[in-house]
Design goal:
heterodimer, A: 429 residues, Rossmann fold, Tyrosyl-Transfer RNA Synthetase, 2 domains, 7-stranded mixed sheet, globular, B: 317 residues, alpha/beta, YbaK protein, YbaK/aa-tRNA-synt-asso_dom_sf (chain B), YbaK/aa-tRNA-synth-assoc-dom (chain B), ProX/PRXD1 (chain B), YbaK/aminoacyl-tRNA synthetase-associated domain-containing protein (chain B), aminoacyl-tRNA deacylase activity (chain B)
Chain lengths: 429, 317
């Protein structure tokens, strides 16, 4: 997808994964395709989904893609079914859209099982905060619904995409990233982590073939945002990333007669990709996987693409950063919605729509009352940007140091155990 | 699972219990509820879900104007001075099976709430009409206290009316007057952790006997303990419990009373339970993280030990 990004005129504006794509979709020319894919070409560029001020227009994106929004009633239902308060990401609308999540809840209520599938492409040793978001949420879902998680590390895609990485290096990066994932607090009794290079064989490979047979080259190029010039390895990659949503890919976990449904937490821009497997799965005899989708953490400089390309590209906070580094990054780069002078600020208040620290607090400050209070005070001009940034620095530092502590405890043996093909007897308990 | 509002209302109709029903937008506080039904002349109720140190739950249903002093109530129940606090949200959702901010006596219709004790304000008796939520907070039902009694008796609960504002002295010559309302037997929501090396469930409860015990209270408590031991052997399941959440809750349950005692010595003015809840909220993420790390590390060690054993012995053992 990074390949595609280089072709586009607009710079990738999102700091997220390196493969930040221009948002592309499967061309819905066949009548077989789901009605949710629009009848027109879905290839869009980021400029089309940016609102005038340069912010991401999520409403437009949801309408364009045809997925559903998560409303208060759904959040309430989740809380009721799991007997615990809903995760901050649900309360704040960070995870805000879905496809067929209600079906998963219906199944769960009826005592049926489902499993979670998420993953990442290891491309660098250090993860940044936005990498953590789907993992933090998946961990919550694991604890709340008491279900197993499979985590896919796409070391093969990483190798095929990056000219400067060897296979050995990609495998090594995958293991390093696995440690960060484990540090998010996944339960080894309910979690299976695998890398494509090691796991692609047997039942998993058979599913890859089943999917691959049903996707044309043209569609696959569209999905990855690539072109005829791309190597055939990366063009052939989408089925590999789709196969884990088919439970028979994991014969050591799910017996043949008990094939649970799959729920995939992911960022919203992955929606067009997973639409492919939702289309293909029924043709192979499986239930469509459900999706629960999140907004994207903006770059520190804000969502406006012009800002991003002009300034320092390294404007993300990494999980390896020290409190001092975090402080510097936030103070120096976080785009403020405050006014240019204290007097003006006290008079007019801050523009919360463009203020990045507030956006970050929305993601990372746990206490709802405190968050509401800060928003109000800042908007009315009583709180200054410096104070808001200070609170953000404290919140992020706490989170990052907790992560680092947990990560330091992850041994090579623990990674081996998570990756071992072992049965998980209590995975639904 | 839990009863729905419609199922409850249907049941009330079956039992020929007369009530009036008012729909309104979701309300989360008594003040909000008052905006919608306050003008109709009936008595609003405020409902609290409280929990004691042994995880027993109490619904306190009072007139909105009645002052409820948790410290006094705690003593009158024989739980000592700081024995009661607000129950965590999980208990609402899990045991009472009602949405947040929707505690109501009607939740006791649920099987999961069978061990919950209900204390009703004496004041309800003198009101013609009282208002409660019927399992959701977008509806209020109005009925007389005698009809509420009819409902409670139908689900096997003896209505217990209490003068919630009374503050009798509890001491050597005055046994706690509400001790009979403490639930006996093991509450539904407790699990039986077995594998955890650092502590187990039963000894922890036995350590928690409050200091101010009177003859009657001692008898109640020992009855609870022996009943608890009895029923725990009955509900003991063969599966081991490796829940990190349960472990962290147990750690807090050990520390909270000790901390409470020390804080009391320092004569802290603020409500101890809110200090403790605040601490709990802040320590929770870190405690859960290290507990999960320990669990994963232990599993890893066991896993590799098993693997090596198989290598040495071969599959035939």
């Amino acid at each position: 997808m990074e390949v595609g990004a280089q072709r586009e005129a607009t710079q990738p504006m999102l700091v997220v994964q390196e493969e930040t794509p221009p948002v592309v979709g499967v061309r819905a020319k066949d009548t077989e395709h789901e009605t949710e894919a629009a009848a027109v070409e879905l290839v869009v560029t980021q400029s089309e989904v940016l609102a005038p001020e340069g912010r991401m227009d999520y409403d437009k994106l949801v309408d364009l893609f045809g997925c559903q929004r998560i409303d208060a009633a759904l959040v309430h239902r989740i809380a009721r079914l799991t007997s615990r308060p809903p995760h901050r990401f649900l309360r704040r609308g960070v995870f805000f859209a879905h496809r067929d999540f209600n079906s998963v809840l219906d199944l769960h209520e009826a005592g049926e099982k489902f499993y979670l599938f998420t993953g990442m492409e290891p491309s660098s040793e250090a993860l940044h905060l936005s990498h953590l978001i789907p993992f933090m949420f998946t961990k919550y879902l694991q604890d709340a619904f008491k279900v197993p998680v499979v985590i896919q590390l796409c070391d093969d895609a990483s190798f095929l995409r990056n000219n400067n990485l060897t296979v050995a290096e990609c495998k090594r990066l995958a293991r390093e990233n696995a440690k960060d994932i484990i540090a998010c607090g996944f339960d080894i009794q309910r979690t299976f982590i695998f890398t494509n290079i090691s796991y692609t064989r047997g039942a998993f490979y058979e599913n890859i073939l089943e999917v691959a047979k049903r996707v044309t080259c043209e569609d696959s190029i569209g999905i990855i945002g690539g072109s005829q010039e791309d190597n055939i390895g990366i063009v052939g990659f989408p089925p590999v990333e789709a196969a884990p949503s088919l439970p028979s890919s994991f014969p050591h976990l799910f017996p043949r007669n008990d094939q649970p449904r799959c729920l995939i937490p992911c960022a919203i821009y992955r929606d067009p990709f997973f639409r492919m497997i939702r289309d293909v799965a029924p043709k192979i005899g499986f239930q469509k996987p459900s999706l629960i989708e999140s907004k994207i953490l903006p770059a520190l400089q804000g969502e406006e693409s012009s800002k991003m390309s002009a300034s320092n590209p390294n404007s993300a906070i990494y999980v390896t950063d020290s409190p001092k580094q975090i402080k510097t990054m936030v103070n120096k780069y976080a785009f403020s919605g405050g006014q240019s002078s204290v007097e003006l600020h006290r008079k007019l208040g801050a523009n919360l729509d463009v203020d990045v620290p507030i956006k970050y607090l929305e993601f990372f400050l746990e206490d709802d009352d405190e968050f509401e209070h800060i928003k109000k005070e800042y908007k009315d001009g009583r709180m200054l940007t410096g104070e808001v940034k200070q609170r953000l620095i404290a919140a992020i530092s706490e989170m990052v140091s907790r992560h680092q502590r947990a990560r330091a405890q992850v041994t090579e043996e623990m990674v081996d155990a998570f990756m071992e093909l072992r049965p998980l007897p209590n995975m639904f308990g | 699972m839990g009863y729905t509002k419609d199922q409850l209302l249907a049941r009330l109709q079956e039992l020929k219990i007369y009530f009036t029903c008012y729909d309104h937008p979701v309300v989360l506080t008594v003040e909000e509820q008052a905006k919608h039904v306050g003008h109709l002349g009936g008595a609003l109720s405020k409902n609290l879900l409280l929990k004691d140190k042994k995880h027993r739950l109490y619904v306190i249903s009072a007139l909105a104007g009645t002052k409820v002093d948790m410290k006094i109530l705690s003593q009158r129940l024989g739980l000592g001075k700081g024995g009661l606090r607000m129950a965590p949200e999980e208990n609402l959702l899990e045991v009472l099976q009602v949405p947040l901010r929707c505690v109501t006596p009607f939740a006791l219709i649920n099987e999961s709430a069978s061990a919950v004790s209900l204390l009703l304000d004496q004041g309800f008796k003198s009101k013609q009409i009282c208002y409660f939520h019927p399992l959701t907070n977008d509806v209020t039902i109005a009925l007389s206290s005698s009809n509420l009694d009819k409902f409670l008796i139908s689900i096997g609960k003896q209505p217990a009316y209490v003068d919630l504002e009374a503050a009798p002295a509890v001491g050597k010559d005055n046994p706690p007057d509400l001790a009979h309302l403490v639930p006996s037997g093991v509450p539904n929501s407790s699990e039986q952790p077995v594998e955890n090396a650092s502590h187990t469930n039963v000894p922890h409860h036995q350590n928690n006997v409050p200091k101010e015990t009177e003859v009657k209270a001692i008898m109640t408590i020992s009855k609870v303990q022996s009943k608890g031991a009895e029923t725990s052997s009955k509900v003991d399941k063969p599966t081991t419990n490796t829940s990190v959440d349960k472990f962290v809750n147990d750690v807090f349950d050990i520390i909270s009373p000790l901390l409470s005692e020390e804080l009391k010595k320092l004569d802290i003015k603020e409500e101890l339970s809110s200090i403790l809840d605040g601490l709990r909220g802040r320590a929770d993420p870190d405690l859960k993280s290290i507990a999960m790390t320990l669990k994963n590390a232990s599993y890893t060690n066991g896993f590799h030990a098993g693997f090596k054993t198989m290598l040495h012995r071969g599959l035939n053992g």
